[in-house]
Design brief:
The complex is a heterodimer of chains A (about 110) and B (about 120).
Chain A: E1 9-13, E2 18-23, E3 31-38, E4 45-50, E5 55-56, E6 61-64, E7 70-75, E8 84-92, E9 106-111
Parallel strand pairs in A: 1-9
Antiparallel strand pairs in A: 2-7, 3-4, 3-8, 5-6, 6-7, 8-9
Chain B: E1 4-7, E2 10-13, E3 19-25, E4 30-38, E5 45-51, E6 57-58, E7 67-73, E8 76-81, E9 90-98, E10 104-106, E11 110-114
Parallel strand pairs in B: 2-11
Antiparallel strand pairs in B: 1-3, 3-8, 4-5, 4-9, 5-6, 7-8, 9-10, 9-11
Chain lengths: ~110, ~120
């Protein structure tokens, strides 16, 4: 699976949009971009995933650049409960093991 | 839907004892479950992949005789930490993959403290 690079930490004001970047310059054509988050002392929570088109769901939007070498997770109106570590993971969707390899992630702190 | 539970949520035990952690998929069948370990201020590290009815596949460096995994049904996998030592103190998290699907759903984790 391709390696990803994320900033160690970010801050965001409550009510503002949080834009979390992820670089995955070695991504292959059959690899998807997944985002999970982990609130302190809880299990990871799936947020969104995409291949090449931008995606949106009730939690967030995922913007993938045309060359697919980077992406941005957008939380449109961040709340204090969005404070968490956000993990960007790139992997082939259809694999026998479906393993997820977690990097260090980005600690997002939403401030009041 | 797609809820995964773990029991217990936390456990404290004495050094040398064994601890069993359960992972259950509550509203779906999971052919594959995964066990992760997370030390403080670190990321999740995959320990093993467990397929229902077969032996677990362990990641390099994870002792299969120390971390016993049983996946006897499509809704339950157990991780037993045998002869636990203080260095085994960690946050253990399981995830389950929907049968026929690809996405993983994570449990809330179990905090193990070995005295």
């Amino acid at each position: 699976d391709a390696k990803t690079t994320q900033p160690t930490s970010m801050d965001c004001a409550e009510g503002r949009a949080a834009n979390l970047p992820c670089n995955h310059s070695t991504i292959s054509g059959n690899e998807y971009v997944y985002w999970y988050r982990q609130i302190h002392s809880q299990g990871p929570q799936y947020i969104i995933h995409g291949l090449k088109n931008n995606e949106t769901n009730e939690m967030a939007s995922l913007i993938i650049t045309e060359d697919r070498k980077s992406s941005t997770l957008i939380l449109p109106h961040a709340t204090l409960r969005d404070t968490a570590v956000y993990y960007c993971i790139v992997r082939v969707r259809e694999t026998s093991g479906s393993r997820l390899t977690f990097g260090e992630g980005t600690q997002l702190t939403v401030n009041p | 839907g797609a809820v995964v539970s773990q029991h217990p949520s936390w456990v404290i035990c004495k050094s040398g004892t064994s601890v069993k952690i359960e992972c259950r998929s509550l509203d779906f069948q999971a052919t594959t479950m995964f066990w992760y370990r997370q030390f403080p201020k670190q990321s999740l590290m995959l320990m093993a992949t467990s397929n229902e009815g077969s032996k677990a596949t362990y990641e390099q460096g994870v002792e299969k005789d120390k971390f016993l995994i049983n996946h006897a049904s499509l809704t339950l996998s157990t991780l037993t930490v045998t002869s636990a030592h203080p260095e085994d103190s960690s946050f253990y998290i399981c995830s389950a993959k929907l049968a026929g699907g690809n996405e993983q759903f994570f449990g809330p984790g179990t905090r193990l403290t070995v005295l």
